[in-house]
Amino acid sequence: MDKIRHLPSLQALQALVEVADAGSFTQAAHSLCLTQSAVSRKIQLLESHFGVAMFVRSSRSLQLTAEGEQVLASARSIFEQLHTLQERLSPQQRPFRIRMHVSLAVRWLLPKLSEFYRLHPDISLSIETVATERVEPASDSDAYIAYLPEPSQNSACSTLFEETLVPVCTPGLGLDSEADLVRFALLHGSTDQQTWSQWLAARGGKPREDYRHIPFNLDELALDAAARGLGVAMTDLTLAAESIDRGVLIVPFGQPLKTGGVYSLCLQAAGAGHPACARVMQWFAEQRGG
């Protein structure tokens, strides 16, 4: 008990984090709804507790000391653990959080959300999108949807749909066969430009150097460019399905190419304890293949 009583206070650690982030006692006081002198006293308590200075102060700058950096790192870790614990113990107070690529959210999930909320009006989904090539799990998400080169053996991951590549363009572009591709720009939805390379190689097409290319970093941008007549995009059939159904895009020729890759929904530890987890996962399971 005596050891616990002599630990630094959470309020003092919070003041340290705010001052370090703001670079100013005045701004930190404003964020904490305290006076500047009150914030200064909390920092002084930390300095007295550890016996070292937290900051090097001058008329123009405020910098953490080496010891202050160590205390700050520990303070951030403590608050992150407390935040994770609170969400684990009281998950009903927040939505079910899903992390995914922005193109997948716009092209695949968004058209389905109205049906989800019709069936589950009491559940709130929080969709976090990323524009990076790879979707990484995050500590503040309950599940994430990632592209995998092959189905995962992890029981926490379930396949939503297989990657199936098709060329798409606007109707009336005048594209009748693969030989016509040399007359149009090949639109890429990622900077590595791998999907067109895979499709051309599988069909024994010309080297990619024989074509004109317009790269984008998102499938969403490439598909929009295709709809505007800028060229021919290579994309996953599932991502383009709604635009094809609406007649905005067409598949001009060729058989779809299955690459072996899949889009999988992976449940994280934080999501397993959420009251809505079972119903959310069941709904996503029902969307498989579509």
TrEMBL record:
Gene Ontology molecular function, alphabetical? DNA-binding transcription factor activity; sequence-specific DNA binding
Please provide the Gene Ontology terms (biological process) for this protein.
DNA-templated transcription
Organism superkingdom:
Bacteria
Among InterPro entries, the record links this protein to:
LysR-type_TF_proteobact-type (IPR058163), LysR_HTH_N (IPR000847), LysR_subst-bd (IPR005119), WH-like_DNA-bd_sf (IPR036388), WH_DNA-bd_sf (IPR036390)
Task: Identify the residues that the record assigns to the HTH lysR-type domain, covering every copy.
Answer: 8-65
Q: SUPFAM superfamilies given for it?
A: Periplasmic binding protein-like II, Winged helix' DNA-binding domain
Q: Keywords of this protein's UniProt record, alphabetized? A: DNA-binding, Transcription, Transcription regulation
Which family does the UniProt entry place this protein in? Belongs to the LysR transcriptional regulatory family.
Q: What is this protein called?
A: LysR family transcriptional regulator
